[in-house]
Amino acid sequence: MYVVMVDDNGRYMDEEARWTLGQFERFEDAEAACRKRVDLCLREGFVPGISASALVNYYQMFGEDPFIITQAKTPRRFSAWDYAKQRASEMCVYMEPPA
């Protein structure tokens, strides 16, 4: 069983802001739910011309930080921040000025 919890980056270390997104039988489903939450937050902060680094900064200040809890013997890892960096680069690739 994989439980997806969500913290609010804007309320760092505030466990009262934490909420449960859902329970999933497979890691892949839990990870997909996490990715969807991060994607939603990135879309909220996206404006034409924004750089990937600015979008990541927005996410880290105001976005949601989903994470996976499991009792699996060999747990797999999901990092919302790492995923946000990857997705911001993909979203902003055409917006970056040429080097």
Write a structural description.
The chain is of the alpha+beta class and 99 residues long. The protein has one domain (2-92). The protein contains 3 helices and 3 strands. It has helices spanning 27-45, 52-62, 80-92; strands spanning 2-8, 19-24, 64-70. The chain has a 3-stranded antiparallel β-sheet. Helix 2 runs antiparallel to helix 3.
Report the principal-axis shape: globular
How much helix, percentage-wise, in residues?
A: 40-55%
Sheet with the most strands: spatial strand order: 2-1-3
Please tell me the total number of domains.
1
Number of E-type strands: 3
Query: Approximately what portion of the residues adopt beta-strand conformation?
Result: 15-25%
Rg, Å, rounded? 14 Å
Q: Could you list the spans in which at least 5 consecutive residues all have pLDDT below 50?
A: none
Largest sheet: 3 strands, antiparallel
The pLDDT mean sits at: 89
How many separate helices?
Answer: 3
CA-CA gap between termini: 46 Å
Q: Helix/strand/pairing class, anyone?
A: alpha+beta
Helix and strand sequence: EEHHEH
- Oligomer state equals single chain
SSE layout:
Blueprint (H helix, E strand, L loop, with lengths): L1 E7 L10 E6 L2 H19 L6 H11 L1 E7 L9 H13 L7
Antiparallel strand pairs: 1-2, 1-3
Helix pairs in contact: 1-2, 1-3, 2-3
Structural key phrases:
99 residues, alpha+beta, 3-stranded antiparallel beta sheet, 3 helices, 43% helix
Brief description of this entry?
The chain is an alpha+beta fold and 99 residues long. 43% of the residues lie in helices and 20% in strands.
